[in-house]
Design brief:
about 0% helix, mainly beta, 10 strands, single chain, 4-stranded mixed beta sheet, about 130 residues, elongated
Length: about 130
């Protein structure tokens, strides 16, 4: 991903020995260094296109993470600039245990914590 808007797939795998169903939109927080908005950026959940995704053991589904990166001269909420998360935390709906992944090196995020329609969000699960 370069400057502007891009996306990354978040892949969720059924590690149990039973089929499962994913419903809705997973939670996703970007965590990183101090910022005028704080160290955590909870991403907006895009609730369109929601469908049940049934997974057999070992199968996976994905949720698209759309990210608006900083560009020269861009300023986010409360004066945020050039914020680079260090990790992504996610939890599927209905679960009590989540996971944390390292954030791709050098990918900045334009923080829009106070925006009605922010340029970064996470979408509903899709098969595969």
């Amino acid at each position: 991903m370069g400057g502007g808007q891009g996306w990354l797939p978040l892949i969720y795998t059924n590690t149990s020995d039973r089929p499962c169903v994913l419903r809705g939109v997973p939670g996703a927080d970007l965590r990183g260094p101090a910022d005028p908005n704080g160290p955590v950026y909870p991403l907006f959940r895009q609730r369109t296109g929601i469908q049940d995704v049934r997974l057999r053991p070992g199968a996976n589904a994905s949720a698209r993470l759309v990210v608006l990166s900083d560009q020269d001269g861009s300023v986010g909420s409360f004066g945020s600039r050039n914020w680079t998360p260090t990790e992504l935390a996610s939890i599927p709906p209905g679960e009590t245990t989540g996971f944390t992944l390292p954030w791709p090196a050098g990918v900045t995020v334009l923080r829009q914590d106070s925006a009605t329609h922010p340029g970064s969000w996470i979408e509903a699960f899709a098969a595969g």
